[in-house]
Amino acid sequence: MGTELVHYRKKAGLTILQAAEKSGIGRPKLGHMETGKYGQWPDDVANLMTVYGAPQRDVDRMASLAGSCSGQSWLAPWKHLVPDWFRTFVGLEGLAESEFVFEPMVLPGLLQTEEYAQAITDATGFVRRDQTERFVSFRLTRAKRLTDEAPLRLHAVVGEAAFRLNVGSPEVRQAQFKHLLTLAKQPNVTIQIVRPEDGPHAATTGRFVVLDFTQAQSIAYAERVDGAVYVPNQDDVRTYKMVVENLKLVALSPAKSLNLIRGLID
Questions:
Q1: CA distance linking residue 118 with residue 129, whole number of Å
Q2: Local confidence band at 72 (pLDDT 50, 70, 90 cut-offs)
Q3: Which of 3, 49, 71, 160 is within CB 3.0–4.6 Å of 59 for a Cys-Cys bond?
């Protein structure tokens, strides 16, 4: 929301001070709205978009989006457990219509079973042992996005190494593979596996995500060890989407990928 407000303000040729004067919204409040540190109320957003001379369809779209962002977040119980940069991502994921994720080394969090998530969490050491159970519950609550009334459409391309990773016990891994096959039966979930023998691909920098929205522009996202990079610039997002299409072509087809997973089940 903040990024789009900045985009329309700059497109109108206004400084933030000029926008504040024309809209009647205080300069500090407007600055916080643009950085996402202040909740964007539909009336304020519609006011700004009108000042910026945006088409009515965009005024309505942004006001509607602001309305959908209001209210208590389901993330509240975990707000002190999950870092701000990841809470932002999960919040965006909750609003997204579809998500593409590339994971070269580990199965995506949305696809993990409770036992697999527990084993991964224990192994990383990033979460204190007394908070592991709560963190796993957070992951499982997040995964419900795949089975909502209006479920997220997820397309995951996963490196074969993730299926060879020694996570938990053999029983944990077997249950995880069966879970993937069950999820893949849903029309909103697509899984592809990319192997070394399939040749080079464009995703040489590792894990990334592209989120698409009904009412907002797409966003790309990449994690670091201690944070994340959000890519709202649409020219840059288009580059990520080119990488997405390359990965889909290089990876095994969804049907062949599921056959590979079946072959891993005893």
A1: 11
A2: very low
A3: 49
- The identity of residue 17, as a single letter, is L
Task: Please check whether residue 122 is in contact with residue 132, taking contact to mean a CB–CB distance below 8 angstroms.
Answer: yes
Side chain identity at residue 184, one-letter code: A
The Cα 263–Cα 211 span in angstroms is 31
Cα atoms in the 13 Å half-sphere on the side-chain side of 218: 16
Residues 34-59 as b/e (b if ≥16 CB within 10 A, e otherwise) read beeeeebebebbbbbbebbebeeeeb
Cβ–Cβ < 8 Å for 135, 127? yes
Element (H, E) at 234: helix 234-250
Burial of 244 (0-12, 13-18, 19+ CB in 10 A): buried
CB atoms closer than 10 angstroms to residue 171:
10
User: What is the radius of gyration, based on Cα positions, of the chain?
Assistant: 21
Contact criterion met (CB below 8 Å) for 70 and 64: no
CA distance 174 to 163: 10
Q: What are residue 228's phi and psi, to 5 degrees?
A: -150, 160
C-alpha–C-alpha distance, residues 147 and 208, integer Å: 23
Could you read off the pLDDT of 234-260 as tens digits, one per residue?
899 999 999 999 999 999 999 999 999
